[in-house]
Amino acid sequence: MVGLGFIWYGSGERQPFTFFNDNNQWLQMDKAGHAFTAYHISNTNAILFQKAGVSKKKALLWSGIASTSMMLPIEILDGFSADYGASWGDFVANSIGAFLPFQQLIWEENYIHPKFSFSPSSYAELRPNTLGHNFYEQWLKDYNGQTYWLSANFNLLSKKNVFPDWLAFSLGYSGKEMVYGDIETNSLNGYHAKRQMFLSLDVDFSKIETQKKWLQTIFYIANLIKIPFPTLEWSENKVILHPVYF
């Protein structure tokens, strides 16, 4: 939170705490980011609760509550920032992500994994104060370069588990030409925000078995990131094939 305070809010002005409806901004890419972050905090909490001896059902419940609470400081920081304001939409996205691990009560495990990928975009240099001055700021701020994925194990589609356990498919969501968050302001400045949908293959590292704990940790972290693969993009009523997309 301290790091986020410096990177995201460090150059902004403060205001008395207020709410702001930003649900129509950035093509909802920020909401996808909130859900992604909350999910992985919640999933980690659920693992820790179960290692401490809490039953799976209670661990999932308390991890969802705890993770939603752990995301609240972001809304508080937004509420005091003159550039933003606290958002109920963000709170809803946090809650959706935090309780997504409840899928384990249906399938006994996580078949659906939210993932992230990023490639620097050309739009960041147009508004570096908002979209980031360098790579370390842009991966967090520039929604044009971000893609959020829902990666699902292929055996979710098979009752007999005929596919390799590690093979997955991913549905991705992103946007481009978002220089200003507000769509009208963006258009008035000559930019036209466009949604992008993606379909790709992926690797489910949680299905790769190993007895080495250090390798389990690496696989757990790797499962946050979408692996580059040939990808189909649908945007502006056109289908585009990317030989490799990240």
TrEMBL record:
Q: Which branch of life, at top level?
A: Bacteria
InterPro entries, sorted: DUF2279_periplasmic_lipo
User: What's the short name of a Pfam family annotated to this entry?
Assistant: DUF2279
Record protein name field: DUF2279 domain-containing protein
